[in-house]
Amino acid sequence: MIATIVTTDNELEQIVQLSHKNQKLYINAAEKEKEGFVTWEYSFDLLKKMQGQQPHVIVKDKDHLAGYALVALKEAGAFHKDLATMFKNLETVTYNDKLLSEYKYYVMGQVCVDKEYRGKGVFNMLYQQHKKLFKDRFDFVVTEISPNNTRSVRAHEKVGFKTIYTYKDSIDNWNVVLWEWE
């Protein structure tokens, strides 16, 4: 397996398919509890627009997508309503007595590992690739996790993310988590 960036439309299509398979709307409660879930559905066109700003991070096993961790720059809010809302909410969040807007950061827009690759280090590979690619450009990466997604919460904590803020919106409760690359 290798951690890399998306370079083909086929890889974007595989992200769409993997995301759809793990959508919380399409899996039962036991599956959500055991395996985790993703909340937002990304279309191919939306992923392609985001990819045009910054390629997404993936782990591949030959030609098969083992997992992905999407890269969402602040500018993606111009064409992604939910990301625009998220970035607007993040503007009011503080970290180390400074507003997040005073830092250079980006958002990991969604992470998902194919079921057959879970527990094999893919999640960590994705984030280590993020760090390798972006630590010289950004102070840290931020994302939001539903506290109901206990598998994701634990996996992010294991990588080194820490919760800096919590809130509730019309979709769910959210932990805003940050991974600083010192």
Quick structural gist:
With 182 residues, this protein is an alpha+beta fold. It is built from six helices and nine strands; from the N terminus they run E-H-H-H-E-E-H-E-E-E-H-E-H-E-E.
Task: Walk me through what this model shows.
Helix content is 35%, strand content 29%. By secondary structure, it is an alpha+beta fold. The chain has a single domain, classed as Aminopeptidase (3-Layer(aba) Sandwich). The strands form 2 sheets. It has a 7-stranded mixed β-sheet with strand order 1-2-3-6-7-9-8. A two-stranded antiparallel ribbon has the order 4-5. A hairpin with a 2-residue loop joins strand 4 (94-95) and strand 5. The model has no long low-confidence stretch (mean pLDDT 92).
Which residues form runs of ≥5 with pLDDT under 50?
Answer: none
Order of helices and strands: EHHHEEHEEEHEHEE
The proportion of strand residues reads 25-35%
Tally of distinct domains: 1
The description of the largest β-sheet is: 7 strands, mixed
What class, by secondary structure content? alpha+beta
Q: Report the average pLDDT across residues.
A: 92
Per DSSP E runs of 2 or more residues, the count of β-strands stands at 9
Fraction in helix: 25-40%
Distance between the termini: 27 Å
CATH topology: Aminopeptidase
Which strand order does the major sheet show?
Answer: 1-2-3-6-7-9-8
Using only C-alpha atoms, the radius of gyration works out to: 15 Å
- CATH class term: Alpha Beta
Separate helix tally: 6
Shape: globular
What's the architecture, going by CATH?
3-Layer(aba) Sandwich
Q: Give the full name of the CATH homologous superfamily.
A: Gcn5-related N-acetyltransferase (GNAT)
